[in-house]
Amino acid sequence: MNKKKIAVLVATGMLAAPLIVQAEDVEVYGDVRLSIDMSQNEQDPVTGGKDDSALSVNSNTSKLGFKGSEKLSDNLSVIWQYETEVELDNGDLSVKGRDTYGGLKGSWGLLKAGKLSNPMKQSSSKIDIFTNTRADHNMIVGYVNGVNTFDNRFDNTIWYSTPKFGGVKLDLSYTTDSAGSKEDALPGKLISPQKNVTSFSLNYDKGPLYVAIATEARNDAKLKDNGQYEDVAATKLVGRWDFGQGTTVGFIYEDAENSAGAETSTMTLASASGQARTAFYLNAAHKIGNTTLKAAYSQADDLDNMAGTGATHYALGVFKSYSKNTELYLLYTATNNDANAKYGLKDMAGVEGNTISALSFGLNKRFSSK
Question: Given its phi and psi angles, is residue 240 left (phi above 0), alpha (psi -120 to 50 degrees) or beta?
Fold first, then answer.
């Protein structure tokens, strides 16, 4: 195709774009979540070979997305979304695709498929007051001794949500291949374990109260000695209460098993079947005018029969809103690891037995074509 034809196609597409947007309900949206962070991990630079502190610019899961819908009949609409991270600190589009899907919606509920966060992840993400900052609640929730076992986003996922009845809704998901196999059409010739993930959450969201119970089960997370995959699972109880007058509190309790890849100085946890830990998370936010004060505390207990594998995390922050879509914040957060634990912070790996902390000054800017 010559350059003239390419130019014509580009111009035609640009002219047609407004018509497409008018014909369908299409939104262009995104988040700018930039921060300047001073981080420290207490590691000895001499013996560890790495700096114990650093000043950095971080993108904090900034994103760009497109979504839309089209009404097909009185009780049927098609919905779609494409969303990806944008690395504002280096100007690149990230390879980390976010929730991207197509689906159908009606009075019978919602059915969608694609790359999706599962119900386990979404059940608690809506109460995270420090979402997509260094103090994100997922430094302990969803992690088992520093390994991101649960609260993930998976390829090849099918999701169904029931309609909401009196504030109650059920979300179900099934991931056909959590490894993101390219062989979507037919099984391969080689026999391999089926790698799938199932998750559900039962939610009540009405008035000042939100509560949910959620589970996630994976059979691709841990290899036993015989080379076969073994199931791991987690259960989570989530709650939030709005007191009015700008004050809210949130709570998470989670029981989760460990996965392959988690190691301590004494043993490889992947070789120990049935290792599990419990964790809890508490947060509170209070709004005074355009300023919101936030605090969070979480704790992971030791793995079964593994002393020194627990950790605590806390965060304090001040968020100032300048408009509906723009805010600045200052926060301090830290994770304190026991001797054999290595929990970290968002996008920061923990150091076994050490405290990892960050002081962040950040900007959150949301934008939308609507």
Answer: beta
Chain length of the chain: 370
Residue-wise DSSP of 150-173: SS-EEEEEEEEEPPPBTTEEEEEE
Q: Which residues contact 276 (CB under 8 A, 6 or more apart)?
A: 144, 255, 256, 257, 258, 303, 304
Q: Say if strands 229-244 and 25-40 run parallel, antiparallel, or are unpaired.
A: unpaired
Nearest to 173, CA basis, from 153, 190, 187? 153
Q: Given this model, what pLDDT does residue 126 score?
A: 84
The HSE-up count of residue 360 (CA atoms within 13 Å, CB side) is 31
What's the rounded Cα separation, in Å, for the pair 42 and 51? Answer: 9
> Hey, CA dihedral for 215, 220, 222, 225, is it positive or negative?
positive
- The end-to-end CA distance of the chain, in Å, is 36
- How far is Cα 253 from Cα 282, in angstroms, rounded to an integer? 9
- The mean pLDDT value of the chain amounts to 82
How far apart are alpha carbons 133 and 348 in whole angstroms?
A: 11
Q: Transcribe 256-290 into DSSP letters.
A: EE--TT-B-SS-BGGGSTT-EEEEEEEEEEEEETT
Q: Give CB contacts under 8 A, 24+ apart, made by 315-319.
A: 315/130, 315/135, 317/130, 317/133, 317/135, 317/293, 318/291, 318/292, 318/293, 318/294, 319/291, 319/292, 319/294
Contact 88, 59 (CB under 8 A): yes
Quote the CA–CA distance of 51 and 44 in Å, as a whole number: 8
Domains contained in the chain, CATH given? 28-368 (2.40.160.10)
For the whole model, what pTM was predicted? Answer: 0.82
Q: Give, in degrees to the nearest 5, the angle at Cα 117 between 310 and 241.
A: 65
Q: Please report, for residues 8, 84, 188, 256, the alpha-carbon distance to residue 3 in angstroms, rounded to integers and kept in the order given.
A: 9, 30, 41, 57
The letter for the amino acid at 157 is: T
Q: Tell me which of 140-144, 204-208, 366-370 is least confident.
A: 140-144
